[in-house]
Amino acid sequence: MAFSPSPVNWLKRHLVVIAGLLTLAYLLLPNVVVTVFSFNKPNGRFNYEWQQFSTDAWKDPCGVAGLCGSLSLSLQIALWATLGATALGTAIAFALVRYRFRARGTINSLIFLPMAMPEVVMAASLLTLFLNMGARLGFWTILIAHITFCLSFVVTAVKARVMSMDPRLEQAAQDLYAGPFQTFVRVTLPIAAPGIAAGALLAFALSFDDFIITNFNAGSTVTFPMFVWGSAQRGTPVQINVIGTAMFVVAVLFVLVSMVIGNRRNRRTA
Amino acid sequence: MTTNSTKNQTAATDGGGDVRLTGITKTYGSFTAVHPLDLTVPQGSFFALLGASGCGKTTTLRMIAGLEEPSGGTVHLGDQDVTALPPYKRPVNTVFQSYALFPHLDIYENVAFGLRRRGIKSVKKQVGEMLDLVQLGEQARRKPHQLSGGQQQRVAVARALINHPKVLLLDEPLGALDLKLRRQMQLELKRIQTEVGITFVHVTHDQEEAMTMADQVAVMNAGRVEQLGTPADLYENPRTTFTANFLGTSNLIEAEVDTRSGDDVVVRAAGDKLVLPGARCSAPAKAGGTVLVGVRPEKISLTHADDAGSVPEGRNRITGRISNTSFIGVSTQYVVDCAACPEFEVYVQNIDRDARLAPGAEVVLHWNPAHTFGLDAAQDIDAGVAEGEAA
Amino acid sequence: MSTLTEAPPPLTPTAPDKRPPRTRGRWTPYWLLLPGVLWLVVFFVAPMVYQASTSVQTGSLEEGYKVTWHFVTYWDAVSEYWPQFLRSVAYAASATVLCLLLGYPLAYLIAFRAGRWRNLIMILVIAPFFTSFLIRTLAWKTILADGGPVVGALNTLHVLDVTGWLGWTSGDRVLATPLAVVCGLTYNFLPFMILPLYTSLERIDGRLHEAAGDLYAKPSTVFRKVTFPLSMPGVVSGTLLTFIPATGDYVNASLLGSADTGMIGNVIQSQFLRVLDYPTAAALSFLLMAAILAMVTFYIRRSGTEDLV
C-alpha cells in the first residue's frame, strides 16, 4: 500500500478504527458514569447530578433497606432458572441435532418463537395464565417465567456446539466398546461441555438481569432489577451504582484471570 | 491371536477368523450404495477395498464395523453372525478417516479407552507397550491437537490395535498426510500388520497405496466389486475396462477377432495384426466379433521407423507418429498417434535415449504378445479413466 | 431460526429385511424432548391460548370475565392506541438502523483490525452486560441531563436546532424526547447487533480481501462486493435481535421519555398492571405479536436468508 503522510489519507485508512472506537466509547460511557457516581454524595433522593466525592456508599453497600435482599433473591432465581433451563434445553438440543423424527420442524418452531417475540408479549401471556389459574405471584411464578424464556437460548447455544461435533467421535467410542450410556458420559458430554456452559452462562445473565417479564409476574416480590426500577420512581440510592460497578469489575477480573490461566496452561503443555 | 475375553467375544478361534460378507447390501431411499455383495477376507490378510469416492467402499467397511446397518445380507466374523450386533459388541476396531481422536483426552487415555470400557483395570503396561510400538511413548500426556498428522495417525492405529481386534478396519487412514509421510506410513502399517498378524481391511482411493500394502485388493465401482485379486494379478490381468483404466494406465484398442490358432487369438485393428494369449482374453473371442485389446504402456518398445527392420519377428507391432513427449526422469512418456488408437501411451526407461524420438517422428511400437490382454468390447472403453485421474 | 418455513424432514429409510429392528435409540429423542417440550406447551403455548381467549372476553374484575367473542376490543384497541403502535415501530426501526451503522465498524474492527487487542475489546463489549441494564439506562439520565455537557455541545453545534425542527427534540432538552428514547434503545441493543455481525465477519477468510484487491477492486469495492454480502447472515440476525426486543420495550420510553413518547409496551404494561383492563391488554399484546411475526417473516423472505438465520 502506498504510504502517504497526509492527514486526509491517514484518516481514510483508519476510518473504521476510529468509528469502531467511538462506538466502543458509546457502549462504555454509561458504565463510566455509573462508576463515577458511585462515589457521589447526592443532595436529595436522586443520584443524577454530581455533588461531591464520598466513599460512604462503598463502605455500606447494604445500607438501603431491601437492596441486598433483592440482590440475593435475584441470584437465587438466576441459579435455579439456569439449572432448570440448562437441563431441559440441553436435552432438546441433543434430540434436535442427533435424531430425525416426525415433529422436528414443529419443535424447531416452538423453540424459535419465544425468541422471536418481544418480552412484553410473553410476560403478558404468562400473567394471563397465572391469573386464570389463580396462582399467587411471587418466587415460583418468576422462576417459571425465567426458565421459559431462557430455555430457547440454551437450546440455541448447545445446538451450535453439538452440531459442530464430529459424529465420528461417538462412532469411535462405540467402536471401542463404549455402549450408548458410556459413549454419552465419556465422550459426548465432555465435548459438548463448552456449549452447555455457554448456554448456562447466557441463561444466568438473562435471568439475573431480566426486568420486563419479572415485572409482570412478580406480584409484590422484589428482585434486584425490580428494586432499581422502583428506586427510579422513588429515589436512586448511590448503593445501586456501587453494586453495578462491583459486578462490572468482578466480571472483567473473572474473565481476565481465566484468560491468563488458560494461556499459561496452554503454554505449559505445548 | 490373543482374544481378550469379554462376554461378547465368544467366536470360535479355529480357522474361523475370516470376515464373510454374504449378500450384503445398503440402500438409502432409492439410492443403492452397495449392491448385494459376497466377499471373504481371509484371516490374517491385508485386504484393500479400492475405488473412487462414492463407490460404496466406506459403506461396506462401516457395515463390517457395525456403524451402518445393512439393508440386507449378513456379516460373519469366523462362525459368528455379527449382523445384529451394535459396534460396541463387535471384536472389530476402526481407524477412522481423519482419526476421530477424542480431543478432551490425552494420548494415553485415548489409547486406553477401549481397554477401560471393557472393564480392564490395569492398563498401564499394555498402553505403554502399545505407545512404544508406534513410537509415541514420549507424547503420552499430550492432547491430540498438539501432535502432527503422522503422530495422530499412529495414535489412531494404537488406539484400535490395543484391543487385539479380530479385524482392524482402516478408513482412508493416510488420506490426510502428505506424500512423503504417506509412503513412510504405508511401510509402517505393513510392518505392524506383519508383526501382530491381525486381519486388516483397508479402504482407499489410492491405487498405489492399495497395491503397495495389500495382499488382496477388491476394486469397487458403483456399489459393486469389479475384480478381486492380488495386486500383480489385477494389474497384469484386468478383466474389466474399469480395472484396466483405474489401476495404472492401459492402452485399449478396439479390434476384430480374426482367427483362433491354438492358444492364441489373432485380431485385426486398423490393418495391424495383433496376437494375444487366449487365456488372457476375458471376452468371448468368436471370429468376426469385436474385443478390446489392451497393453500396459511400460511393456512397449519404441523404435524409429528408419530402424523398423531391426524389430524382431513374432512381436505385436503398430506404426504411428509421436505427438507428445514428457521427460519424467527415470523414464520418458510418449503419446503416439496411431490409426488404431489416437493416444497410445508408451513409457520408456531412460537407458539410451534416441534423439530422433521427438514429436512428429514416425515410429514402430512393438511388444511381446504375451503382455496383451483382451476385454469385452461391450463395456465403456473409458470406464475408470476419470476416477483413476481423480484418485 | 430458519424453522418458520422448514418442511418436515424425510423419514429415515427403514431396512426392508425381516430381522427385528434394532431398538438403538428409537424412542430416545422423544424422551429427551418430553420434559422441555411439555414445559413450553404449558408455559408458552397455553399462555398464548389464554391470552387469545382473554382478548375476546368481557366482564369486570369484580364479576369475573367470560368469553363473549367480543372482537370489538381489537378495534377499540387499534383506534385508541395506533399512535403508540406506529411510534414503537418507528423508534425500533431507527434504533436498529443506528445499531447497524454504529455496530458494523466496531464488529469489523474486532474481526479484522484489532490484532492482539481483539480479546480485550470483546470483553469490553460484553462486560457492560454485567451491570444491570436498568442502572446503565438510568446513567443516560445523567449523560443527557438538561444543561449538561452533551446537551451543551449539541446546542453549540446547532444539532438541537435540526433535531428540534425534525420533531426529535424540543427546545433545549434531549431528555424526555424521542431522541433520548431512540438513543437509549440503540445503546441497550447494540451488543445484540455487534455479536452476530462479528461472528459472521470473523468467518470471512482474510485472503478473500487480498484476492479481491488482486482482481482490481478498490478497498471500498472490496467492502461492497465481498465483505458486506458475506456478512449478510450477521446483518439479518443482528437486525432481528435488535428490532424485535426494541419494539416491545417500555423501559427506555419510561425512563428517558415522556408521556408523548409512550410505546406500545408502555400501554400493555399499564393496562395489565395498573388499569387492570385485561381484555384490552391481551388484545394489544396479541396484535403486537402478530405484527412482529408478520414483519419478521416478510423480512426473512425478502432478504433471502431463510437458511442463514
From TrEMBL, chain A:
Its main location: membrane. Belongs to the binding-protein-dependent transport system permease family. CysTW subfamily. The lineage of its organism: Bacteria, Bacillati, Actinomycetota, Actinomycetes, Kitasatosporales. It comes from the Bacteria. It holds the Pfam family BPD_transp_1. The keyword Membrane applies. It is a multi-pass membrane protein. PANTHER family: PUTRESCINE TRANSPORT SYSTEM PERMEASE PROTEIN POTI. This is ABC transporter permease. InterPro entries: Bact_Polyamine_Transport, MetI-like, MetI-like_sf. The chain crosses the membrane at residues 15-39, 77-97, 109-131, 137-158, 187-208, 238-261. It comes from Streptomyces violaceorubidus. Keywords: Cell membrane, Membrane, Transmembrane, Transmembrane helix, Transport. Residues 71-261 form the ABC transmembrane type-1 domain. It is found in: Cell membrane.
